[in-house]
Amino acid sequence: MIYVFVSVLLFGAVAATVIAFTLRKDEAATRDLKDRIGANESARGTAGPASLAIERDTRMSAVPALDRLLRNLSLARKIELLLYQAGLGMRVGMFLMVVAAAAMGGYFVGYLVFNKLIHALFFMTVAAVAPFIYVQHKKGVRMKAFSEEFPDALDLLVSALRAGISFSSSLQIVADESPEPIRSEFAIVVEEQALGLEMREALTNLANRVDSVDLKFFVTAVVLQRDTGGNLTEVLENTSRLIRDRFRILGDIQTFTAQGRLTGVILTCLPLGIALFMVMVAPDYFHKMWDNPAGRAVLGFGVLMQILGSLLIRKIVNIKV
Asked: Which residues, 6 or more positions from 103, have their beta carbon under 8 angstroms from its beta carbon?
């Protein structure tokens, strides 16, 4: 019975993925057709190329029923924010379908290889988690790029303010001159303010979109300055200095914890290397342990302890500043 249920789930995930891809392709074709015939320009009016699109597509899925279901789930909103922070244009519904398809694929691979339900469920769990790990990796890369370029963006903002340019116009300069992902994030702030949103709300939305402690320092400093008054240029200079000091301290921490991180890598890779060496040199010796239920239990316990040890070492050397 469980195999029939899993097969139905796999068929549903694949069918929904195909439908979503088809709808997305139709949307892209329709958008390209409107661009060619000038429908989009006429809908925006005659304000020129600088006019802003007020509406944006906020659907979580191209399938209407799935979109209505996901809108009622708080988890879907968290996944939507995670996909945005990772810089992926995928909708939540499409991502969940990818997760479901990966999980079902892992289930069948595990069952076909080991012919046991427990192994199939294990591979299904690993395959389902893999897309989240990939998105987290993409998010980390994008947020790291933002943090590295942010001090230079602050320096550009301070230079514009010293030249007598208003704060809003200075943000526009940052959006025009800075590299990605700072360019797109600050461009959203400028567009939100142009559409009538208060500066406080636009900056708060920026801090909520970007997972960066340095950006939260900047937003807090600007909001406090606008409430209490003071020299905004000096405040931003101090904020930029604080951010650069944090990077310097982080560099020192990376140096001091290099031995611990290297130890974690060696302790993680050494058992795997020895196991691979034993399989190549003495396959009969290793197969006797694999064929024995007690041996498989010991190997599973060893893998679990390896994972826990790696996580513990990572927790020790990952010092927050």
From this structure: 124, 125, 127, 128
Locate all alpha helices (DSSP H) within the chain, ordered by sequence: 2-37, 39-44, 64-71, 74-85, 92-114, 117-162, 167-177, 182-194, 199-209, 213-228, 232-256, 258-281, 283-291, 293-317
| Separation CA 247–CA 149 (nearest Å) | 12
CA dihedral 306, 312, 317, 320 (to 10 degrees): 140
What does 276-318 look like in DSSP terms, one character per residue? HHHHHH-HHHHHHHHHSHHHHHHHHHHHHHHHHHHHHHHHHH-
Cα angle 298-300-304, degrees, rounded to a multiple of 5 = 115
Whose CA is closest to 143, among 219, 210, 89? 210
pTM of the model: 0.70
Give burial (CB, 10 Å; 0-12/13-18/19+) of 61: buried
Distances (CA, A) of 60 to 65, 80, 157, 302: 10, 8, 35, 41
Q: For each of the chain's 321 residues, which pLDDT tens digit applies?
A: 455 445 555 555 555 554 455 445 545 545 554 454 454 444 444 444 334 444 556 677 777 777 788 888 888 889 989 999 998 888 888 898 899 999 999 898 888 877 778 878 888 998 999 999 999 999 999 998 998 889 889 989 999 988 888 888 999 999 999 898 999 999 999 999 888 888 889 999 999 999 888 899 889 888 888 888 778 888 888 888 888 888 888 888 888 888 888 888 888 888 888 888 888 887 777 777 777 888 878 888 888 888 888 888 888 877 776
Cα-trace Rg, the chain: 26
